[in-house]
Amino acid sequence: MPVKVLGVIPARYSSTRFPGKPLVVIDGKSMIRRVFEQSILCRGLSDVIVATDDISIEKHVAGFGGKAMMTSARHKSGTERCGEVSMKLRQDGLHFDVIVNIQGDEPYIQPGQIDQLISCFLREETMIATLMKKIDTVEDLNNPNVVKVLSGKNGRALCFSRAAIPYIRDKGRENWFEEHSFYKHIGIYGYRPGILEKLVNLPSSPLEIAESLEQLRWLDNGYEISLKETTFESIAIDSPADLLKLTNRQ
Q1: How far, CA to CA in Å, does 64 sit from each of 46, 76, 112, 131, 158?
Q2: Positive or negative, the Cα torsion across 167, 169, 174, 180?
Q3: Class of the 5-248 domain?
Q4: Cross-strand bridge partners of residue 48
Q5: What pLDDT was estimated at residue 172?
Q6: CB-based contact 115:166 (threshold 8 Å)
Q7: Is the pTM of this model over 0.85?
Q8: Which residues have C-beta within 8 Å of that of residue 20, sequence separation ≥ 6?
Q9: How confident is the model over 87-116, as pLDDT tens digits?
Q10: Helices 31-39 and 111-119 sit at what angle, rounded to 10 degrees?
């Protein structure tokens, strides 16, 4: 039976490093429009909604023919914003089998990347899923801004960390790739709606606070996260300086 999937693009106006980021113009179109238009090309999505806390973003999305929903300004994460959308739609009698949290700051996200994530939910036992990509440089391995993930034999996450995991004893880091395959986390999530609504009510955990990674809260509370390997990795725009990365994108 086909899986009915909703794509949600969280779009917060306020940002310490880049206020108004969703509305920045990239090659003639706003960032949020580019993310939306890339997302609707995904064959596995039944619908796409922008979840925002700002009326100017809501009006902008409506202006180019997209769907938008106003959500609370108190949310601390995209997961919380997706959770509010899920609950509001359920209260309105609209049902989706899966909610996909699509990063609103990746203007050239690949539709195939979203489809790969959705494929995880063809297995009924999958409750939460995300993607990982092989690390092939020492620079990425050593970079704390590149989140690493360790997978078990069952294809589920054992741990996420900003440190290189696993640690290869008695070997220089330049030789670690000869001993083990390392993976970075690609931060797009899918959730079953019932699980999503539970996740947003979990209190912060010490491990999450230490690493500043919300997915560690879920693992701490016993929720399993399925992983799928991908070769896709789109450029994320965290600050105005990151716009220069798009000039050299392939």
Answers
A1: 19, 27, 23, 30, 42
A2: negative
A3: alpha beta
A4: 7
A5: 86
A6: no
A7: yes
A8: 13
A9: 999 999 999 999 999 999 999 999 999 999
A10: 50
